[in-house]
Amino acid sequence: MKQSTSFHVAIVMDGNGRWARRRGLPRSAGHRAGAEAVRRVVKVAPGCGITDLTLYAFSSDNWSRPAAEVTTLMRLFARHLRTETAELAAQGVKLSVVGRRDRLPRSLVSAIAAAEGGTAQGTRLTLRIAVDYSGREAIRAGALLPDVDLLIRTGGEQRLSDFLLWECAYAELWFTERMWPDFGASNLAAAIHEFHSRDRRFGGLPTQEAV
Ligand code: IPE
Ligand code: IPE
Ligand code: MG
Question: 34-72, pLDDT tens digit by residue?
Fold first, then answer.
């Protein structure tokens, strides 16, 4: 069995738009509420034993959304990075953004560089935010991340949507109907609790028979 002290959780943060629509709000309000959920989850992650947290924020296929929504998201990412850098550094978080940068607005590219520079000393948690990310392209470019232990997807869909295809080879999958803006510490704890109850065999035999 694979022994490791790292614990890599990856999250497909889905459901912002539906969360907003149900409240009669614009989709942008859902994305803003989603950013708050990111803050909550990052804060409790190290206490849950997570050493690596990778969050899917914008897929390469999300460029097909209306321009106004894309612009809102890009601005939200840049603002969030700028306002959160000091707090992330104080929490011992090392932030890195994965995915293509050549199609991002220049202001976002510089916000990313500043946030990565400002959190480079973090050792408690490696936080990766996937922006303009495609799992297939990452494989083609050899831009591979550590293996994922637990993959969480909110929003009710049960698919990967081109996220961490290679890295999820033996990930435990956990899906919830809960929309991302409603996701919090107790939901993360529930997912991790279930993860620890699963028998990860990696092609071998169940733990009690593997003597
Ligand atoms: C996830 O929420 C955020 C992004 C993909 C940027 P969605 O925007 O996909 O929300 P739904 O799935 O439409 O509810
Ligand atoms: C996946 O969500 C991408 C992110 C959460 C960033 P989507 O909403 O884009 O996925 P599909 O379209 O339902 O597969
Ligand atoms: Mg969606």
Answer: 999 999 999 999 999 999 999 999 999 999 999 999 999
Q: How far apart are CA 177 and CA 157, in angstroms?
A: 8
Nearest to 164, CA basis, from 155, 175, 153: 153
Number of the ligand closest to the Cα of 64 = 2
Any catalytic annotation for residue 16? Answer: no
CA-nearest of 55, 136, 60, 59 to 88 is 55
Question: pLDDT tens digits, residue range 1-27?
Answer: 444 599 999 999 999 999 999 999 999
Element (H, E) at 194: helix 185-197
- Rounded to whole angstroms, how far apart are CA atoms 98 and 56? 9
Q: How many Å apart are CA 21 and CA 177, to the nearest integer?
A: 15
Verify whether residue 14 is a known catalytic residue. Answer: yes
Q: What is the pLDDT of residue 3?
A: 47
* pTM given for the model: 0.97
Q: Residue 191 and residue 151: Cα distance in Å, rounded?
A: 9
Tell me the backbone φ, ψ of residue 27, rounded to 5 degrees.
-55, -30
CA distance 196 to 133: 29
- Check pocket membership of 56 for ligand 2, CB cut-off 6 A: yes
Report the pLDDT value the prediction gives residue 4, as an integer from 0 to 100. Answer: 58
How far does residue 161's CA lie from ligand 2's centre (Å)?
6
The two most distant CA atoms of the chain are separated, in Å, by 58
Quick check: helix, strand or coil at residue 42? helix
